[in-house]
């Protein structure tokens, strides 16, 4: 038996399109990244990530402290170096947080800015049907002129007003959201300013001794420490030279500094020749560079006369030890001493060096190891003489402020005596050579830098503060007024005149809204008693709302 299926054919259901998982993942990731919670987390991470940059020495600021850290912590320092702990602000992980925060802020601000512009262009909403449910509510006799008069009073008080027949809608307080957006936009501008300074800025530190023979020209080779941005080449540095002519300092009786002033001569292809003064809080402004005064000290002038009668003068700066009296330590090296003028030959083991401690104001009684005051009241130079091979010809970098102790430990350099000298005194060594303390020159420590992001950063910070004030003190609120005629069947306490029903709603937390609402009602009616009546009604509405919420 054959069975025939005579049911009508039905079309097969269309296959359901599978959502693109990658696209969905990207969309959800973007939503998470551009949320305000993520922006706050990234801002917190950026602050935490900056802590190692303030705790650990950084190569771009003080490379000698980084080297000292490696010496003091031989096991820990290489591990920290592998994660960029000595170059925090240029590390990959810090840059990643920086860029993510930048992207998150842009993603947060863009839709909010669009919505805020739409809200500014839109009209205040219509009055609710039941204004009695609003936090602030009152019913009073309508003022002469009706809705038009109410709207005029509100406009004089800078409310955005919309009149719809016998209803008046008003809104105020857009400054809060405007300030909020301005704050976050300025924060993006701050990040841009920091990026500009990092990419196109440069800085360098230089110790400059007074005198025409110690002039400094703005080349990378003449800096003790230099840092150029990734977009800056050595040839891009402005061309100028500085010569320290004078340095003045005043101190209080306690030794605390009171006044610093450096006088320099500026010249060069990019700067007109001129004399300029600058101090700690008033840097010297040049074309594409600023010169900051960081510190100062003394450079003892020592003249050494070798056994052939040849004299050499050293005015190397002595670095301060950090005490208030400017006690300084340093080195005066004479690697070309005792060269035979007849043959021009030099014996390496007859090189001379003097380590010393300089006291601007030495105590009257020993021990003379610390200065009592930073100015030169009783200057004393305590020298230790060394003779031998200083190791300067080996090509190994050494400090100009300290004697190479490896040469001392191996016996290649030997101590030959110590002497306490005052200005003008001479010390005759065991081989007949002499050392004379001629006096001192002043030196200053300068920081020369150029930051193209400084001006945008300053302007952005100003707008950021303005936006913050608007965000904190702005209050969004709305009020509505409805002018109605009383129902004759129900009777009216006002004798049949028109009534004005008013309501107010704060859009944000605003404890003073009840008082402002009462003042607004009084201004509309032109009657101070209306303010009292509105205030009583507002209090009653508040209490009723509390009871309703409790129930």
Automatic annotation (TrEMBL):
Keywords of the record: Cytochrome c-type biogenesis, Membrane, Transmembrane, Transmembrane helix
Main localization category: membrane
GO biological process, one term: cytochrome complex assembly
Biased composition range(s): Basic and acidic residues: 540-551
Annotated localization: Membrane
Residue ranges the record marks as coiled coil: none
Residue ranges constituting the ResB-like domain according to the UniProt record: 36-518
Transmembrane segments: 92-113, 181-202, 454-473
Pfam families registered for this protein in UniProt: ResB
GO cellular component, one term: membrane
Superkingdom field: Bacteria
UniProt cross-references to InterPro entries, sorted A to Z: Cyt_c_bgen_Ccs1/CcsB/ResB, ResB-like_domain
Topology in the lipid bilayer: Multi-pass membrane protein
Signal peptide: none
Protein name: Cytochrome c biogenesis protein
